[in-house]
Amino acid sequence: MKTALITGSTSGIGYGIAEAFVRNGYNVVINGLGDPDEIEQERAKLENLGDGQVIYDPANMLKPDEIAAMVAKAEKTFGSLDVVVPNAGIQHVSKIEDFPIEKWDAIIGINMSSVFHVIRSSFAGMKARKHGRIIAIASAHGLVASPFKSAYVTAKHGVLGLIKTVALEGAEFGVTANAICPGYVETPLVKGQIADTAKARNMSEEEVIQKVILEAQPTKQFVQVEQIAALALFLASDQAAQITGSAQSMDGGWVAH
Ligand code: NAD
């Protein structure tokens, strides 16, 4: 049985990816912040969906030692680690001149450097076993910018550079590295933003979706978590062995502009 580790999987896209891997017969390591009792309930619910085991590790993505210990625990518990999905991420929106320095550091740390630390810790094992799949959840903002998101855009562009380098270093060892670049995804986080923006601007939620949130997304539809999870599963499969170093857009046509 194969094993997948997904960072930031107590919510949103990461949780959806964890669910897809469990359903497809993987052991899964989930990770992320949250209330311990709620996380235990989520873990147990996930485990019931498949034949594999699901374990939780609370590693903070700002702590390289905790990330390394999480990877070591996964390898020790399951004997191997086949798929890593660096997914944890946060956002902060502000003009550059006002951008809080601690927010810059946190976004670079969680959204970019933790991707390096997860890969650094798991790469030797994957190379030795001659098999591995690294699937980073980047963003359309890894390919294009928007104003007021300087740290996020910088971090996501950095992830794409890292993934290309890892692809080259893993190429002769059966280890692929790719990034998925979603546009706006309907996660609890985004749903909350819709309601808040509707109140703040005195618009209907549908108007907010069409005119504010999905302005950049030509299909005017959200990407669904299940669609990203399906792409991640494919990138993890044997059929995807020759896809490496790529940025896979799933953004309703956003970067085609
Ligand atoms: P989310 O807020 O629902 O989930 C984020 C996850 O990261 C949570 O599990 C949270 O606990 C975890 N996390 C945050 N800080 C952490 C830390 N220091 N240590 C460990 N875990 C931490 O967000 P989401 O929308 O599911 O986003 C997941 C990824 O997808 C992010 O990298 C995000 O940038 C990317 N993304 C999201 C969208 C979107 O529209 N939602 C679009 C493109 C890319």
TrEMBL record:
Keywords: Oxidoreductase. InterPro entries: 3-OHbutyrate_DH, NAD(P)-bd_dom_sf, Sc_DH/Rdtase_CS, SDR, SDR_fam. It holds the Pfam family adh_short_C2. It comes from the Bacteria. GO terms for molecular function: 3-hydroxybutyrate dehydrogenase activity. Its EC number is 1.1.1.30. GO terms for biological process: monocarboxylic acid metabolic process. Belongs to the short-chain dehydrogenases/reductases (SDR) family. This is 3-hydroxybutyrate dehydrogenase.
